[in-house]
Amino acid sequence: MSIFRSYQKKTSSLNHPIIRPTLNFNFVNNNKLSPLITFTRNSQTTYFDKNGILQTAGINQPVFEWDPVTKRCLGLRIWEGVTNFLLYSEDFTTTWIASGATIVANSIAAPSGTVTADKIVETATTGEHRATQVTSMSATTSAVTFSVFVKAAERTSVRLAFSILTNWSGGGGAAAIFDLSNITARVDNSTPIAYGIIPCSNGWFRCYITGIPTTSIVPTCNAFIYNNASSYNGTAGSGLHLFGAQLNFGPLAPYIPTTTSSVSTQADEAFISNTDLTPYFNINEGTLYVEDKSGVSNSQSNYNGTGFTNPGRILPSYRVSNAVRPAYTVNNINYLLFNYSGVSPEIDLRSCMAYKYNNIFSNVNNFIDSNQYAFDAPIPASIPRLTIGSGGSGGSNNYVKRVTYYNRRLTNSQCRSLTR
Fold first, then answer.
1. How many CB atoms lie within 10 A of CB 295?
2. Shared-domain flag, residues 351 and 363
3. How many independent structural domains does the chain possess?
4. Which secondary structure element, helix H or strand E, spans residue 418, and what is its range?
5. Is the pLDDT of residue 213 over 70?
6. How far is 160 from 50, CA to CA, in rounded Å?
7. Rounded distance between C-alpha atoms, residue 143 and residue 202, angstroms
8. In this structure, are 258 and 271 located in the same domain?
9. What is the extent of the structural domain holding 187?
């Protein structure tokens, strides 16, 4: 089983480890899971494949996602459960209300490759030209994200906004304008907590805004054709293509198709059980190395990332808000003080933790906390399980690229060589 029993090639660095890891999962180059790994997600989800096409993954099918533009594999996707509260997410002729516009159904190929994308066409009237949906979400004061796939036609800009802007954080509401020609996004006299434009394949872009209501309201989502203004004298026949609208709690999340009702996906969970880990794990000493992308904000401010858990924690990538704070915990006592701060969303992280009796070392991206201190650290109480990318309730919302475990305690310099 070469996927988890392979040699590290010796590099020019004399400090790079040349001993064989007992576990070595490279999810970027090997887009499959070892039989050792249990994966669960009791629902379907969507993802971009290696050809940049939006696909559907079946129940309990792991997702190896690809950047739809660069065609590079991002790794194994681990995400928390998500609900799309917009109905008929791919049919804007139904629960959507067109104002100053008409909707032409199934006018062009969607990101999925099927001819299911609609076109919003402005009328020759002065005013706003938009599609609106009062959502099925209950009144809330929690952060929510509205997103939609957009493709230019005669018009090349779209404005996304929640209705009644004064009811949103910052006093100016949550709205942004997206220029599909120049691939730029800017706020529109508002202060959304996040917004962005993500290139997809075949001229499609996924645009999104995230806002926090200041009073308990039911969010109403609007997609405007934008022509140097939201309100203007329309030209009959001019418009934009729309597909895959979504409203979910928290940050931007994988797209979930809907029809007559909201649809939820369950959380991804990937792990090696205590029993299956036993032949590979050394309770007396070892080293765990993880490559992943820092997660986007999720429903929890703290989450485990990838590491050994239950019992205890050997977590080189434990996250606390915008920091990585590796944790070595035995019998509910944390024996390591370490803080790698200023971690922005979706950056590449290389984390390593080496352990032995009273000899713990950790570093992230070759950073060593000068205040790092491990005190009287015992060995793990028993064989843990290997949790990959956290998962379960409040998953880490990230891509795991590599997980490597050595059943020996590497030297500090070898750990640093791994994370450079």
1. 25
2. yes
3. 2
4. helix 412-419
5. yes
6. 29
7. 31
8. no
9. 83-264
